[in-house]
Amino acid sequence: MSKDLPSLKPGDVIRMLKKIGFEFYRQKGSHKIYVKDGYMVIVPEHNKDLKKGTLFNIIKGTGLSVDEFLKFK
Q1: Could you give the CA distance from residue 38 to residue 50 in angstroms, rounded to a whole number?
Q2: Where are the domains of the chain?
Q3: Per-residue pLDDT of the chain (73 residues; tens, 9 = 90+)
Q4: Of 46, 36, 31, nearest in space to 16 by CA
Q5: Which CATH superfamily is domain 10-70 in?
Q6: Distance between CA 52 and CA 24 in Å, rounded?
Q7: Is the entire prediction scored with pTM above 0.85?
């Protein structure tokens, strides 16, 4: 896992996913599910920064590298 991941709130990650082309699919509780071309990511929507491991798994689920994903910030 990369130690240079920034602290991001779920809203920031959702905006980045939309820029990449992910679309909202459904929601279960406070977890929103976004899909694009066979990729699916789950974003827990809370009012605090995402943990590094959670953010890393979201990025991994997009099929992009960390650097490619952060370009959409």
Answers
A1: 24
A2: 10-70
A3: 556 889 999 999 999 999 999 999 999 999 999 999 999 999 999 999 999 999 999 999 999 999 999 999 8
A4: 36
A5: Hypothetical protein. (3.30.920.30)
A6: 22
A7: yes
